[in-house]
Amino acid sequence: MNQEKTPATTSAATPVVGLVGLGAMGAGMAQSLRRAGHAPHVFDVRREAAEAFARDGGTACATLAELGAQCDIVVSVVVNAAQTESVLFGDGTSPGCAASMKPGSLFVMCSTVDPNWSVALEARLEKLGILYLDAPISGGAAKAASGQMTMMTAGTPAAYERAGAVLDAMAAKVYRLGDKAGAGSKVKIINQLLAGVHIAVAAEAMALGLREGVDPAALYEVITHSAGNSWMFENRMAHVLAGDYTPLSAVDIFVKDLGLVLDVARASKFPLPLSSTAHQMFMQASTAGYAREDDSAVIKIFPGIEVPAPKGNAS
């Protein structure tokens, strides 16, 4: 029933695209849009980030209202539902973009959120005459920058028609999962269940190896060429070996995302024992002071191990 993207329809006029949130994923998505021939309008709470992007093409908007007024499509790449609310409806000190968006324009929501919240947002925007795509993303910063990430989308036929080829400009795979909001966010929640559990168990395996005195580089080499490997082990344990906890995806992201996973399951009384344990591991790492470190820092909760020092550090 679900399918990959089908060829997008294109209109005679290229839509004006705006993107909000130039973080690890959003910056790459904006670059992909520019590479595809768009001149995106961008907004970030860090004004300097928007201006730096615009120096190579595009427009840095000073306010969300300015961006909304100038764009046919607004792509929101912020952390959570609360930030998305601020993007659309303001934060009490300045208006969001919804008030200035033209009727028939499109809002593309790329955050990981409660699917029920996404369903409700579609209804709220419909009352304002704004089309909506539930479109969470996956793939990491490198794939976002190369236009190779995955989008899990759901929305009305009118929303897809308005999007045209813009989604394809940002992602290698655009999955169309339903004709109304919610389905995209449900699939993303399940993806985050797997991602969080895989990171937690990868950290547990590497921690056991360290505890048992196994050379970590040798362990990494063997596992990444054996049946026990996973994409998360290969990717995240490379960070551990390098001693580099620069937050491409922070510990607190999985405190949030696995919390959403458990909330969704709790509503239908569905047991998720592995997700619950992984969530507790990330919670422990967060409260231990690693909240803003890379999510691979969950390995630091294990006692009696010494993680590899940063490369070039003699200590």
Give a verbal description of the structure.
The structure is a single chain. The protein is an alpha/beta fold. It folds into two domains: 17-181, Rossmann fold (3-Layer(aba) Sandwich); 187-301, Orthogonal Bundle (N-(1-d-carboxylethyl)-l-norvaline Dehydrogenase, domain 2), CATH 1.10.1040. Helix content is 48%, strand content 11%. The protein has 13 helices and nine strands. Strands 1, 2, 3, 4, 5, 6, 7, 8 and 9 form a nine-stranded mixed beta sheet that branches. The radius of gyration is 20 Å and the shape is globular. Mean pLDDT is 94; it is low at 1-12.
How is the secondary structure organized here?
Blueprint: E1 17-20, H1 24-35, E2 41-43, H2 47-54, E3 59-60, H3 64-70, E4 73-76, H4 81-89, E5 106-109, H5 115-127, E6 131-134, E7 137-138, H6 140-146, E8 149-155, H7 157-163, H8 166-170, E9 171-176, H9 183-211, H10 216-223, H11 231-242, H12 251-267, H13 273-290
Parallel strand pairs: 1-2, 1-4, 2-3, 4-5, 5-6, 8-9
Antiparallel strand pairs: 6-8, 7-8
Helix pairs in contact: 1-6, 9-11, 9-12, 9-13, 10-11, 12-13
